[in-house]
Write a structure and sequence with these properties.
mainly alpha, 14 helices
């Protein structure tokens, strides 16, 4: 099997792993939704229980730091705080929206990463990217439906989750140059669990064995997805394979139809097409710039 896998080019290997990551995140979302009427904070806490053990083992195996360099502490804190809030908001959106809608809204996070990188990291924002961002936001409005649906709160919270994820990814752009990925994942998973613990104690709702298993499975799928994503980018650069991350929306749409018997409406589908088109344009633009 290994020799067969080695016959593929690095680009194909990267695509395979990014597809595995997308499926992992889709299965994570499914488990979160299937776990029922539990607080999003409680779901996020149990989802994070797997990460510290896996990442901690890798930190120990590589004889690395569990807390990172002192110069990285500020960014590690902001990455952990923003990432935790983003996960909670995303889980709320998953619970109250069609899976594929929640997934596509969350996929706006790279757009916010570009904006925050321009503001805080002083990275250049070309007019082509600015236009693509505006187009992507128009697609987001079709999914959230501020004028078509009275209850827009889940959609707004989903967008806030994408904003928080954008902040976290902006921090990762700097941390990736200074810290190994397993240290960053360990700090995030551990700090996230610590931040969520007081809320868990205060608002804990007893769970059935099935609910507990589903949340632990969500953590396993999320961990597999995170490391698959890391491996994918070790085989090929982002400007060659990142667009395949949107396969997550296809996976979640299929799961929504098969498991939950729901399918996105025409406005959401138009929103998907617009956001994907804007992202594909930025993907192609960045690839040309890299060359």
């Amino acid at each position: 099997m290994k020799s067969f896998f080695n016959t593929f080019s690095n680009r194909v290997k990267g695509i395979i792993f990014i597809l595995i990551a997308s499926l992992g995140f889709a299965l994570m979302s499914t488990c979160v939704k299937l776990s029922g009427d539990l607080p999003s904070l409680q779901k996020a806490f149990f989802r994070n229980l797997v990460g510290p053990f896996v990442a901690g083992y890798l930190v120990y195996k590589h004889n690395a730091s569990f807390i990172g360099k002192r110069s990285s502490w500020n960014l590690l804190w902001w990455r952990s705080f923003a990432g935790t809030v983003g996960v909670v908001f995303n889980f709320y959106a998953i619970d109250h929206l069609i899976l594929s809608d929640a997934s596509m809204i969350n996929k706006l996070s790279p757009i916010f990463t570009i904006i925050f990188s321009y503001i805080f990291l002083k990275e250049k924002l070309k007019y082509q990217q600015a236009i693509a961002i505006l187009v992507a936001f128009s697609g987001m409005l079709l999914i959230v439906k501020p004028g078509f649906n009275i209850d827009v709160l889940p959609g707004i919270i989903g967008v806030l989750g994408a904003i928080c994820a954008g902040v976290a990814y902006t921090c990762l752009r700097v941390l990736g140059k200074n810290e190994p990925y397993y240290t960053t994942v360990f700090v995030f998973s551990t700090l996230s669990s610590v931040m969520l613990l007081p809320f868990l104690i205060y608002m804990y709702i007893p769970m059935s064995l099935i609910q507990f298993i589903l949340l632990i499975l969500s953590g396993i799928f999320a961990t597999v997805a995170q490391f698959s994503l890391t491996i994918a980018y070790s085989y090929a650069p982002a400007n060659e394979i990142s667009i395949f991350d949107y396969s997550n929306v296809i996976f979640t749409a299929i799961i929504s139809l098969v498991v939950f018997g729901v399918f996105p409406d025409i406005f959401s589908i138009l929103g998907y097409i617009i956001i994907f088109s804007a992202t594909f344009f930025m993907f192609s633009f960045n690839k040309r710039q890299a060359k």
